[in-house]
Amino acid sequence: MKNESESRKRELKSRYENKNSCFDEDVVNKVNEFIRGCESNEIKFLFIHLTDCDEHGHNYGYGTKQYLKQIQSLDKQIGIIMRTIKEKGWIEDSLVIMTTDHGGVNKIKDGTTIGVQGGNSEDKINVFLSVCGPGILAASKIEGDLSNLVCALIALSALGIEVLKYFDIKLPQISLA
Ligand SMILES: [Zn+2]
């Protein structure tokens, strides 16, 4: 059984090998700094990529103690960004879309649990989608199967940008949960 410090070493090694990766907290600090320094009309669209849950899913396995703890940490980081948006007075005019790129399953490699992606199993392809902002009723639920392409469609619609005909995807139906 590997101990916690070996897991940590594995995580840092993974990040070191992927030099474009950085910790969520650092990204959120930069995002906050950026938002605070902007006038309202300077931000039309902001894409934020937080990778710590993905790293934890791959390094420790999905649904593991470390993974669930990281989701709590992510929740806190999202809360920090939302608070900054509120402080700027933009919350009534901001649409926030959250999703992830993939799910995963666990496997044992060299005696250690890791998470793997790829393939078409339900656990690998089903991900969450969360949307809040103007026009989105609290406690409403998105109906039916979606592709994560819908995020682009929601963003384009919210920005009032015409969606090209060949972009063959429809806005989701929502209902009250
Ligand atoms: Zn991944």
TrEMBL record:
The name this protein goes by in its record: 2381_t:CDS:1
